[in-house]
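Notes from hallway chat w/ T.B., transcribed later so I don't forget. T.B. wanted the structure written out for a chain they're using in a teaching module, and asked if we could keep both sequence and structure tokens in one place. Agreed to drop them here.
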Amino acid sequence: MINPLDALSALTQVQLPTSGVNFQPTGPTVPGGAISEAFQSKLQPMEIPQIAAPSVSIGSVGGATNWGHMVQQMVMDVNAKQQTAAQKVSDVLQGGPTPVHEAMVASEEASLSFEFLSEMRNKVVEAYQQVMQMQV
């Protein structure tokens, strides 16, 4: 199983292409000629949203000033995601307008956020235990 911290750092380092993708065929085409313009228009590249890494400025005005504030904000974010997911799942179960896939995505996002937070806590506890075992 991949470490959530490694997965997050890998996601923040992903460089998305800035130019469009060329969908012109380079080899043989369908018998009868080139691709029709109607079909070609459907092959236009989609706009891919940029994934932004969470940024926290230590000691800056208006930003998190210490570790405690950053952790508190993360816990509040995870809690908000869990509440949103619970609301969407409840709406789906009651036959509301929320699509099932939205509820599933919100549920998985909340689950991954909680796993990330618990792994971060485990790493902090492990680091604390190592520091406490050091000989002075």
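Follow-up for T.B.: Residues 85 and 106 are 5 Å apart (CA to CA). Might be a good example for the class.
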